Amino acid sequence: MTQLASTAREITVGELAGRSGVAPSALRFYEREGLIRSRRTSGNQRRYSRDTLRRVAFIRTSQRLGIPLATIRDVLGLLPEDRTPTREDWARISECWRSDLDERIRTLQRLRDHLTDCIGCGCLSLDRCSLSNPDDALADHGPGPRRLLEE
Amino acid sequence: MTQLASTAREITVGELAGRSGVAPSALRFYEREGLIRSRRTSGNQRRYSRDTLRRVAFIRTSQRLGIPLATIRDVLGLLPEDRTPTREDWARISECWRSDLDERIRTLQRLRDHLTDCIGCGCLSLDRCSLSNPDDALADHGPGPRRLLEE
DNA sequence: CTGATAGTTAAACTAAGGTTGAGGTCAAGC
DNA sequence: GCTTGACCTCAACCTTAGTTTAACTATCAG
């Protein structure tokens, strides 16, 4: 194990990768995209402050929630720039995902329940049940699958 | 309105697009990817049987559930090739999404609840709470955010 | 028959979220 | 002081789910 940098308070890209489980290429990509920052050594190598680890954890967790990187970047911008973020700072920005997440859970549940409803007839949303509507009379109501899309 | 093709039992790509709300380019793409099929006229134009409308509805509904096209194609392969699928056929393949969907709802709920748990300390899954674990001692346990990923 | 509308193809392009490779540099251990 | 592994950049490539464009052909109403 070389380049431990463990006496210093900073970590290398390889260490950050090992600790976070995120490939170095992805970490460089995040930096290009403005999600994380690094100091450079005299030899142009990246050095990360330790709180970057938490930042990367926040990014990955947010991605697991289905949030696009651009949105994550914007929300990370709400953290204070002048000091190491506190627990309260992280708690505050975590709240940003709350309503989005609740909304998506509700949508999936609704879709699942409609799927259940329709399994009996196999209509799957396009024609409002072939039983009562044998030859897609719903075509008049405009394009798109109806039923599940509306409301 | 030209090319109604309504005397025939087949529909053109434009009609299918209008009825399904899916762009002709997407329908051709689905055909290249093996999700739908068409007959060709003597002039090389596509003609779809009417049940393609239901097939497309199934595709779009499945996509709304977050299923990738390749998976949808595989499941559509379970339909009978020799006859027009019945309601029972559609019901049967719809069941394929059931467990997947339930699973994803559970995962999102779990993530949401852990997010809630962690908002108090802002730890967000990487270090098992900075309160009891101030300097990421979890790094020994291998790469990747722990907590939310495990079990 | 003509003109408008609708259809055909292949290939290029998009966007997100990265990975891979070439060619070259840095830093640590012996 | 050299070797080796970790690092650097830049550009090209990957996947998914399509859209767009160019150049051309088919079909239909009148």
From TrEMBL, chains A, B:
Looking at the record, the residues that make up the HTH merR-type domain are 10-78
What name is this protein filed under? Redox-sensitive transcriptional activator SoxR
Q: Which CDD domains match?
A: HTH_SoxR
Q: Which InterPro entries match?
A: DNA-bd_dom_put_sf, MerR-type_HTH_dom, MerR_fam, Redox-sen_tscrpt-act_SoxR, Tscrpt_reg_MerR_DNA-bd
Q: Which UniProt keywords apply?
A: 2Fe-2S, DNA-binding, Iron, Iron-sulfur, Metal-binding, Transcription, Transcription regulation
- Answer yes or no on keyword Nucleus: no
Q: Please indicate which superkingdom the organism of origin belongs to.
A: Bacteria
